[in-house]
């Protein structure tokens, strides 16, 4: 497949960066998402749990951003996860109007197992890259994310913010 910068007559979609990013994410995530479902979770629930592994006690607004789930949808997901004993919700001691979400012991055990599985899946994927560890592609993607987020007013412009873990963003 030629690159559109090299050939102006090349097809648009297969050479379009956003398509390539989405298609790569979909292909890379498919098998792991299937594994997540065999463990009794939906993908959004996995994202919540993975984020809570990094920042247990996050507020729903933070989780929505880091798990890439619309806030009202996420609230429903958290209520369902709470009912299943995977997370618990508590009022913020500093501001009772805010709700913080925590993994339960059962949720942490499952999340620990899935994070280990995700890391193994990631290592398998990264072996196909030059150097075998994916450092170059991860650095490139982090730089792209940082650039894009810094261009958006009101968005955090760094990839090292709590919970913004590029390795779990679409896992």
What does this structure look like?
- The chain has six helices and three strands, in the order H-H-E-H-H-E-E-H-H.
- By secondary structure, it is mostly helical.
- The protein has a domain at 42-150: Arc Repressor Mutant, subunit A, CATH 1.10.10.10.
- Strand 2 (87-92) and strand 3 form a beta hairpin.
- Helix 2 packs across helix 3 and helix 2 (43-54) packs across helix 5.
- Residues 155-171 have low confidence and may be disordered.
Supply database-style keywords.
171 residues; mainly alpha; Arc Repressor Mutant, subunit A; 3-stranded antiparallel β-sheet; 3 strands
Mean pLDDT: 87
Question: If you compute it from the alpha carbons, what radius of gyration comes out, rounded to the nearest whole angstrom?
Answer: 18 Å
Strand content: 5-15%
Strand order of the largest sheet: 1-3-2
CATH topology of the domain at 42-150: the name is Arc Repressor Mutant, subunit A
The backbone outline, from C-alpha atoms, is globular
Brief description of this entry?
The chain has six helices and three strands; from the N terminus they run ααβααββαα.
Topology:
Elements: H1 17-38, H2 43-54, E1 58-59, H3 60-67, H4 71-83, E2 87-92, E3 95-103, H5 105-126, H6 135-150
Helix pairs in contact: 2-3, 2-5
